[in-house]
Amino acid sequence: MRPTTEDVLTSVAGHGIPGAMGRWPDEPLDASGWSSLTSRVRAQRLSGLLVESIASGSLPTTPTQAEAAAEAHFHAACDSLRLESGLLGVVETLQAAGVQARVLKGSAVAHLDYPDPAQRLFGDIDLIVRSEQFDDAVAVLSENGNHRRYPQPRAGFDRRFSKGTSFRTADRLEIDLHRTFVMGPYGLRVDLDEVWRTESRFELAGRSLSALDNEVRFVHACFHAALGDVVPRLVPQRDVVQMLLSNRVDVARVRSIAQHWQAEPVVARAVAYAWQTLRIADVTALSSWAHRYVPSDRAQRELAVYTDLNGSYAAKSLAAIRALPSVRDKAAFALCLTFPERAYVTGRHSGPRDRWQRGLRALALRRQRA
Amino acid sequence: MTTKSWQEKWIRNDTVLWRLASDRVVVLRAGGQDVLSLDPTGRAVWDALDRPATLQELADRLAARYAAPRDQVERDVHALLLEMEHLQLAARTAS
Predict the structure, then answer these.
(1) Residues of chain A positioned with their CB less than 8 A from the CB of B91
(2) How far is the C-alpha of B51 from the C-alpha of B17, rounded, in Å?
(3) Residue B18: strand pairing partners
(4) Does A97 touch chain B (CB under 8 A)?
(5) H or E segment at A60?
(6) Backbone phi, then psi, for A317, in 5-degree steps?
(7) Shortest CA distance to A161 belongs to which of A319, A272, A47?
(8) Global ipTM
(9) Of residues A74, A206, A207, nearest to B22 (C-beta)
(10) pLDDT for A52-93, tens place per residue?
């Protein structure tokens, strides 16, 4: 049976992984199929793996198609370099202000986990800073001409409760400044002391940059794959498989971290989903565990906050309140979102009443499901 | 070319950002805006500059790889190295 565009796309995403059972066409795709594939490849940032699939002979193409794929990858590679140039500038700015930062996702994973960083493209600059330095980092980036895209509900909210915030640089690059991995309950349970305890380092333009250590980087890749989007994107799934099959990840430590952070449902979902999507035949201890893992009812409800098509900021907020350890924290979180500062409300909702109604609708929806 | 230029070794400038892009290499100086592209021949020289090499060594290697006249390859590589030096993509090294 002729593979669908989706089959070819996932085969591209898994190209080069030992044990990936790619489904490839016997002959070049027709114009419509090629157009559909390349548009999905662009959206999923897979042009590096597409040109490798073509070069290896796995994906047959016409000369024109091969040339177009190479040209598209050339531009994507240029974009990655511009982002890395921006990354170096941001890290330098933060360091000069005494703010420690670790590179997340994109550039760090490309250089540490892939044999050729051109295989792993990215679209923004992701950094994590310590909670206690978060406000300083925001101030420094703002003072250096970067535009903060969304204000926080009230002073101190992001430093205590949020995933982080985003900036746009003068060159229109996007910086995601993280404090933890995701918004909501799973983000609040990340042990940030463990995140900062050890590190990996990689070289970029002669500079040594800090990244998460191998196991924490893998767990973060699982968060990104399992909770980042309602339908998991292919690049984070590839990251999960790429890291796990590299044999550089200590699986026992991964299991320990996942248990400690109550993130086993996240790791299991990411690994099982990636193994299935990329059709990986090889079985590892962690993939075997992930396929057997059954999340509790509570874990399923928490996962649904991230994976449900109707999931909303309000639903994540409600779940976050439940996950906060102390009554004081719960009260502070609720106060910030119930009575936010004017700048936060402007542009998001038409006013406090609209905000209440949205929150109530989200609550009502969850109650109906319960 | 002087005796000195025969003995000099060349190496990539490791303070630039770069990526392989199919048969080309794209390079950007940190903080720069303009991405430079090396064509397949340029890429071959870039690949060969991953460790210090003299012009003679580079020419020998590339002439063998492309089955091209040695003198012609040497002239082309020398011109490219000077251009790469001007663009701060490659440098002469003492080692």
Answers:
(1) none
(2) 17
(3) B27
(4) no
(5) none
(6) -65, -45
(7) A319
(8) 0.87
(9) A74
(10) 999 999 999 999 999 999 999 999 999 999 999 999 999 999
